[in-house]
Amino acid sequence: xxxxxxxxxxxIPILGAMFLLMIASAFFSxxxxxxxxxxxxxxxxxxxxxxxxxxxxxxIAAPERLLTAALLGNLMANLMFFTLSSILLFKFPEDxxxxxxxxxxxxxxxxxxxxxxxxxxxxxxxxRAIATLTALPLxxxxxxxxxxxxxxxxxxxxxxxxxxxxxxxxxxxxxxxIERAVKLSKEDAALLRREQKVLxxxxxxxDVTAEEMMRPRPLLKTFRPPVSLDVLRDVSFPQSGxxxxxxxxxxxxxxxxxxxxxxxxxxxxxxxxxxxxxxYVPWSVPVAEVLEQLRHANREVAAVVNEFGETIGxxxxxxxxxxxxAREPSRARRLxxxxxxxxxxxxxxxxNGLANLRHLSRQLDIxxxxxxxVTVAGLLxxxxxxxxxVGDECEWGPCTLRVLSIxxxxxxxxxxxxxxx
Length: 421
Description:
Blueprint: H1 2-9, H2 12-35, H3 40-47, H4 51-60, H5 63-90, H6 97-125, H7 127-145, H8 149-163, H9 175-187, H10 189-204, H11 210-213, E1 215-216, E2 222-223, E3 242-246, E4 253-258, E5 279-282, H12 287-297, E6 301-305, E7 311-316, H13 317-325, H14 331-336, E8 341-345, E9 348-352, H15 357-364, H16 376-384, E10 393-396, E11 399-406, E12 413-419
Parallel strand pairs: 2-3, 5-6
Antiparallel strand pairs: 1-7, 3-4, 6-7, 8-9, 9-12, 10-11, 11-12
Helix pairs in contact: 2-5, 2-6, 2-7, 3-4, 4-7, 5-6, 5-7, 6-7
């Protein structure tokens, strides 16, 4: 064993070079895995980030060049590593060939574990962070290989045409796949009913306004900038799933930070009104239009404003998705985890203040008077011309409305609705 250590000590320069090549191989392996694990949302966030993040977004925008640079760099590092390993093996005398074989085997295992498996596993766990860290050196490699990129691309195309002339890239989705899905859905009546319900919910987005689906402003917890995630230690987790940051000098919501997709480094970050801007939409715009604007602007939260430009609530992508796939879409159920309309007796119901009037009309299967208000709570304020109090009673078409209770914490209103015969 002492002979082995003596031989290794005599070749410190070669071992040092091999160690540096292992670092280079690990770098290329990690960067390759990180960049090609980035989803659409990650790429968009990189494009809106700092200089290194934007550089990473620019690199992944040309994936073939990036992959060529990463693979070629990794290949060169591995070839040089094994060349030095062979040189080291030949330096062992004939009576120590077994020791040389042990050294070669250890270097091979070390290369596989520490330069391939471990870096890629780490990169998959935090692809956006690793892509940002490796963007600058990988960008230098891409720029260094730019003069020979046309030659490499030509060799790639030529080899595909010569070796695989009939190769056809597989489509993302075939027509036969859609036909098979439709056939299977027809065989399952329950599945077909759920699909029809989802389609109905999708169509209804064109008729439902942002005001009807939004989270009302009184239920939202907002923070003045700059703010860190430490503020959440003293308050309950926001029901909306977003850290809402106001403008510096007003109470208007300016930024919404998703608390469901945070990285470790985000917990040390200070968030301001421009950190993750919201999209502003009028209260009367259809939800379908809000969804299209959110998608086009790459935003997750829309601040709903009234005719005076005041923020009266927010509407998130999660809210829209939940409405699409819920069996019985209900804002009251989504916000309060309660059933919006409950039958308690003959011609008698308990109704949530946020219950939608159109949904109420369908539930009771009767024609109700048309009003500007869209919720039961808004209707009561319109009829009473003030904020309702417990015990208030009023007539509304064929119905009698009576306020049963009002929660002091969140102004949750429960109304008794009696259908007059």
